[in-house]
Each structure stands twice: as structure tokens, then as C-alpha cells.
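Why run this: before we spend reagent on co-expression, it is cheaper to look at a predicted model of the complex and decide which construct boundaries make sense. The entries below are exactly what would go into the expression plan.
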Amino acid sequence: MASRSRPALALCRARIYTAPSARPLRPLSQIRWQSTASSEDTEGVAKGTTGTSKTIKFTSETYPEIKRDSKFAEITEDHVKFFKELLGKEAAVIDGVTKDATDDIEPFNGDWMRKYRGHTKLVLKPGSTEEVSNILKYCNDNMLAVVPQGGNTGLVGGSVPVFDEIVINMSRINQIRSFDEVSGTLVVDAGAILEVVDGYLAERGNIFPLDLGAKGSCQIGGNVATNAGGLRLLRYGSLHGSVLGIEAVLPDGTIVDDLSKLRKNNTGYDLKQLFIGAEGTIGIITGVSILCPQRSKAINVAFLGLESYEKVQEAFKAAKGQLSEILSAFELMDNQSQNLVQQVTKNKRPLESAHPFYCLIETSGSNSEHDNEKLQSFLEDVMEKEIVSDGVVAENETQVRNLWGWREGIPESLGHWGGVYKYDLSIPISELYSLVEETREKITKAGLIGDTDEHPVVDVVGYGHMGDSNLHLNVATRRYDKNVEKELEPFVYEWISKRSGSISAEHGLGLAKKAYIGHSRSDTMIALMKQIKKLYDPNGIMNPYKYI
Amino acid sequence: MSALRILVPVKRVIDYAVKPRVNKAQTAIETAGVKHSMNPFDELSIEESVRIREKKSYAGGVEEIIALSIGPPKSVDVLRTAMAMGADRSIFVEVKDGEEVEPLAVGKIIRRLVEKEKINMVMCGKQSIDDDSGQTGQIVAGLMGWGAATQASKVSFGEGGVSVEKEVDGGTETVRSQLPMVITTDLRLNEPRYASLPNIMKAKKKKIDKITAEELGVSLEKRLKTLKVIEPPPRKGGGKVEDVDGMIAKLKELGAI
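The model came back. C-alpha cells follow.
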């Protein structure tokens, strides 16, 4: 449908044309990360969207075993009238109940991977914490199910409705409330976009302690609600450590103001930790206070080619030993993932010859001479010992961004053929890549992989945050196919369970992994978690059918 | 047919991706603590020289590619990058930190070195992104009495000499010249390579010869005085409105309706 692409475009990241011109180049004032969409789009893909412009299949059709819970009320015109009066502005309510607003509502119904799609007819966009409180109280009193939504970039279908849950989108609550330049404490609305917030901090010499490929669209509230990990967890730690305080609204409308700006506050149970990673199931986060570190002046990026996974582990050990405090990222990519990125972006590969594995190493420090020296001796050492076969070092900012593009651009490139089965796993580091090899073998034996359209699978790739022992196993497909899903699940989860790993290292449970939580958590733990859910959300209106 | 001996001037400038800020006194751009790297057009020059050698585009071959930088002590970083990309050795004319060298002085230094090193091709960037003068290549050609093909988007060698496609308004213009000559590089000429690890290691062993402007008999006396440096007026952003009501209100405010 041609009309689909316009609302979808609204969620896209900006593209930068890298076509050279005769004029000297000047940097754009708000450069987004280099789009991996090729400038000659020969396959008719709507520019910037993931996958093709085919319609997304309804979740209720893909997973008919999930049934709408009859305890939830159906949305009526009276409900819509209430919300319209409550929120006042025309922009705050997308009403698909009293009229047809399918095109306007589509972006809120479908997820980024084009794998899940709900049936909601009502989207609310509150402008303040009070409005969120009034909305939730009304929904709780009237048994209306809701889905809190931020940038809708989640990878487990947690941010879109399954049936007719009302979408509460936080985009309008997006201001930076305050920033203390001495302590580095930032207080920000939940709907603020990550890249915008980081840009604000950059002007003041600080950095947001979280970075991920979706930064141009994802919102802080969503990041916290999913306890996002990202590219720099290795250096800045998890959100459980950097978030100082949270302002949230409980399902019954109570505003929980725990927006402390204190670095240390040992006064009672640290309840904000419940909201971090709760995926919108016990309340909606409306504000966050977070500790932001100093932005490093000296950044270096090296892109290395290695011959085996054993060598990758050796390189990692060497990096930790020789780069130690300046190491800020250690990312792994396999050759298959780089091939797919090249097919989509048509960019020139950084290294001349192909290598089975690639590592992207980033250092961040306060003194460029000191860092350069450390990096040079590290690189000399790993080259000499033949741990690394080849590599390049970025000589300027533009090259830094281009090299990162080969890692950050993988998710978007993978979706190019139509679909991706994504697995985000914590695995003991010595076995990290074995899962990719075994999965590839299994899919090949089943005859599902190939270059022609009759084969659903394009390739099986592995990449991820080596530094955190976190693998992203992805199966790029031309379409979502039950045959492929059968080969992958529960195989992947059982493999993980055997090694006591995590079936969701950082992406969360959402809808995709709700059924598999038992592979990583004991029954006791699950029971305790259900108690918490019942305590805070007795009516179960918050993001039902997901998480726990 | 004699081999090519190419001199490639390279300049250390504020990194192209960094937003430059004017210093408080409004006399210059703030450089303290700011990321610097090689002038992007100079990357094109080094890349082109190395390609001419690798592709054996010139029948006589390339005997030597010498990188030259005139600047503060940290300019050696840029020379190391040039050598990691394929330059054989470097010449470094050191000046005091913060001292600006004008294109005429640069041109005169290059002239002396061209004579000293028996250079028959000077390949430089069409302009540097800090002062945007765009004069050095042309000045060198004038001083030497050589032909200059500026804003090159393609360089080829043949029976008749060196053919250069130049970027001009509305398209390209092709000129032909005999050696020795000056070529200034423009964006479409090539895509500069990354500095590879093996080459970075090799570059450590390559020579950097230091020499002063005085030894070359060139005065760095300035003929221009910078009176003031100010940022251009900020672009007045458009405003975003949330809905039709907001748009009507804004139009009324602007007196448009």
C-alpha cells in the first residue's frame, strides 16, 4: 500500500548523502549516524524503513494461540470523548474509534522489525506527567488495557499492542528538565530522544552513559524500561547503576516521585530498580535522573580482521590488559554479517581481504598522546603475535563514524530482505560463537538457506558485545516463516539453558520471549516476580500478554 | 622518460566533522583541545599519488612520494598518516604553535623544496578547510612557471602528456599539460584509503627530515592581518507546531492571517 510508507517514514532516521560535490563539505549540525540505506535503492524499498513495504502480519494471526483477555473492556466512543476532553489538544489523541484513522495509527501498531502488529484504534499522546496519571487512573477504573510506548524501536514486540490495547505514546513529554554541570546529573523527561539528549550533553562536555544503534529514534523512558545495554556498557556500566532516580505513574494513577539527584541514598528499599527493566508492566516512567560521565576528548577506533574465534578471545584478553581503562567498546562481527551490510549499503569494506571475524575496538580517554601510545603498542603487539591478521585505524572523525557504521548498521541491513529472527543471548565467552555455527548447520541441513526466493533464509549471522559476553544471533530472512521458526525455537533457548546463559541479555522479554523465561529463571524467581506484578498492577492493564 | 617525483603538501587542520567555534577574543578559531586531522583534500592528494604508483599509470613510474607539512609540532601526526597511506618519506618545516603561515610563504617553501628534491609534480589539495584560501597550488605554479590543473576530478597519463579533468561550474573541463606541473585535488578524484596496521607499522620506520623556513631562505612575514573572526548569524529555525490549531495561532502571531 503506497500510503503505508509515509507514516513509516515519520519514524525513520535521517539520511546523509555521501555523494561528493564540488563544494567543500561542511558538517551538518546534527549528524545522525550514517544511514546504511543505499542511495540507489534498486529493490523498491521505502527509503529508511526496515524490510520491504509489504504489510506487517497481525500478531493475532501469527500467534493464534494468544487470545484476547475478555476481562478488558472494549473501547467505546464515551471513552474517546473522555480522553479528548482530558488531553485537550487535537494532536494528543489519534482517534480510530469514531472514524477511520488506520494510516495515522499504523506506525504505532507495528514494530520496527515488522514482525508484530496490533489492532489498536486509539493512540494517546499525553503532554505531562499529570495527564499520564489521569489517563492511567481512568483506564484502571474502566478495565482498559494499555501499552506504554516510546520510540517503538524495541526488538521483542514489547512496545506495540497485541489486540486493542490503548497506546500511550510518550513522545510529547520530551524536555530536558535540568543538568548540573559539576556533578553531571541530568534530569530528563521520558520521551526525550537519546541522540538529542546526548547532543545536549556533548555541548557541555558530558556523555550519556548509554549508546545504541537506535539512538536517533529511541527515547530515554524506553531505554530505562528495557534496561538497554548498548555499545558502551563495557565502559559506563548498566542503567541499574547510572540511573539515580525515577518518576513514574502507577496503574492506579499514583505519581511516584523518586526523582532523586543523589549519588548515594541508602534510605530504604531501592524501588526504582523495579521499574528499570520492567518493560512498562508495573507503571509508566515519566522522568529519569541519571549520572552522566565526562565526555572523552580522545577517541580512537581500530577495525581488525582475525582468522578464528580463538584469536578473537586472545585479542580481547590483550585489549583488556593493555588498553584497560581507556577501552570503551569491543564489538565482534562475523564475515557473514559484514557481507550482508556490504550488499545493502554498497560501501567499500575497510579491509582489503575477507576474514572470518572482525573486531571493532574503541578507546576513549582524556589525553590523546597517552591513548595513541597505548593503542599503538597494543596493535603492534597483536600484529606481531599474529593474533590479528589485518586492521585499520581511523585517522579522523569521519572514518570513526564509517567504521562504526559497519557494526551499527548490521540490524538495519539484515532486515532488508523482509524479516529477521533475532536472538540476544548471554553466553559464556569461550562458547559464544559455537551457537552461530550450530544454528547455521541446522538451518542448512533443513534446506532453508539459499540465494533464491524459495529459500526463506538469506544467512545466519553472529555479532555483538564481546566485551559483555553478549551475542546477537540473527537469521536474515525473506519472510517470516513457521518452518524457520521451528528450527530455531526452542533449539536456541535450550542450548542457552544448558549453559546457564540468558535468553535475553539486553533486549528484554516483551512478547517474543515471554514463553521462554523458564530457560533462564527458576520457578521460584518467576513466582516472586508475578507477586510484584500483582501488587502494583492488580487489574493487569499494563502491557498485557507480555513479559511475565 | 624520467620517473615521477611527487611532492604532496599536507596540512593539519581541525577535523572536518568537528564544529569550529570562535575564541572569546574573536581573533581566531578555538583550537585548544579540539580534534585535529589531515585536511580532507590532502588525503585525496596522497591517495592519488599512491594510486598512480600502484596502477602504474605513468610509464616512467613513480620514484618517490614525499609528504610535506608546514606547521606546529603536532603536524608530525599528519605526516605519519601520509606515510601510513603510502608516502615514502616526509619533510617537516616546524613553526611555532599558533603561528599562521600564509599561502605565499607556503608556496615559496614548496618552490625551494621542489628545486632541492628535483620534484616534477606537486599534488596538493585545492584548499585547506581552515582558511579556505585555495591559493597554494596556483602560487607554486606561478613561482615555478609551471602549468597548473586545479580542482582535478580525474588524472590520466598518455602520449600527449598529463590529462586532467577539472571541476568547473556546470560540468568538467579537460586540460592537458607536460611535466613538470601542479595538480590540485577535488572531492571526486578518489576515495582515500584507511591507514592499515601493517602500513602504520612500516611508516614508523620512514624518515621525517626537519628543516626550518630560514634554512630554506624563506621569510614567514605576514602580509595580511586578521582583524576579526565571527560566526555567521545563526540560522533562524523554523518552528514546529503540533496541530492545525497551533498552525493557525502561529500564522496569526506572524500577522500572516
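Chain B touches chain A at residues 15-19, 33, 35, 37-38, 40, 81, 84, 127, 129, 132, 151, 167, 186-188, 191, 194-198, 200-201, 242-246 (CB under 8 Å). Chain B has one domain: 4-254. Bring this page to Monday's planning discussion.
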